[in-house]
Amino acid sequence: MNTIVISPEFYNYGSLVVAGILKNLKHKVNYFKGFKNKINADITFISLQSTIHLLKYQKNINSIDSFKVVGGPVTMDPSMVFKYLDVDAVMVGEAENKLENFMRKFEENKLDEIEGVILKDQKDEIPKMIHSNSLDRPLPYIPPDIKNENIRGANVYIETHRGCPGNCGFCQVPKFFGREVRSRKLNEIVNEVKEFVKMGARRIAISGGTGTLYGCKKFKEINEEAFIELLKNLSKITGKENLTIPDIRVDTVSPEIMEAISKYTNGWVFYGIESGSEKILKKMNKGIKIETVYEAVELAREHGVKVAGSFIVGYPGETEDDFEATLSLADDLMLDDYFVSIAEPIPGTPLAEEVKNLPLDKNPVFMEVNDTNVSTIAEFRALKLMLDSYVFRKIPMPMTEKLFNMILKEVKSQSKHIKTVTYMIKDMI
Ligand code: SF4
Question: What is the tally of structural domains in the chain?
Fold first, then answer.
């Protein structure tokens, strides 16, 4: 079978895995980044990461003349995919476990027999999320120019495990991958990283929702031995300066883990801190206490590990006092770097459900504010926190006009994106 796999913006790991499996099944596979190439295929698999892609690439996708299947995080809400895109099927959730059967049934013209694949004429069906027990699979397709890829500083994010026992209201990992952690075999991860490095990739990030859960079985019962072994083995291949662990929960660290991060990686941790208000943390279902944030930051410092923290503003119900608490925590922590986002209602998450029913004039993303630079409460808080973070970070940076404009542009862009997604989930566009 002649197939094409498309990822619109970057070499998204999930789409590389899909292309690798199709190749292994002996199908002819072409992999395209973006929509510039001429499509000539029996089936085109399109991997979409963000709700906004449904609008942004609507024209490109609708004009493809082939049987079209959409996969990726947007499949959490198949009816929304069919609303915006003229495609034939949506492969809901994890794709690897369905591909072989899908290709067989496609040839037999019996696609309606596959669980977890919704066809155009079944668009109102509620999808079933199927999580496979085994994460064994062939090597992903590795593009020849992988060394030029830059996804938040890495050439590629390698999956080490799936699922998260956490249940944060803004995150789609627990539903998409489940709350039970499933880890890949160490030798498979090692072989994969070796192949990426052989093909020219240098900077490797490991991902799986929250890094230190590799090998763990129950929530917060981290498997130090498995995680340390993972870092040790990967670091041998990449060199410590080229290995990154992006996201970690503040309650899944220990001195041993921090020591290993210091010894085997580029020496950064990225904590999901989100808010300085216990009330908002509870509303987010984050499951962490502020004191745990302080302890985790301190632990990293004791081991010479740098800390970046992510914060979310404009969550429904966030008051001025809640935001002040976030500002005060962010100031107090004096982190090495800060990432600030306006709360995004990703379809399928509890946050999206809340936003769907929340009147716009009660949503901080739309609530107006009187300010010369921004027009909504969420924009105001994002701008304030981003600007202040340059002052209270460990090594403060002077605020130049250029930097200010860059930050303002980022805030406006986030706000525009999230307003559009909100209109989409509220069925207003
Ligand atoms: S801990 Fe991280 S991966 Fe897990 S649910 Fe929360 S945000 Fe998602």
Answer: 2
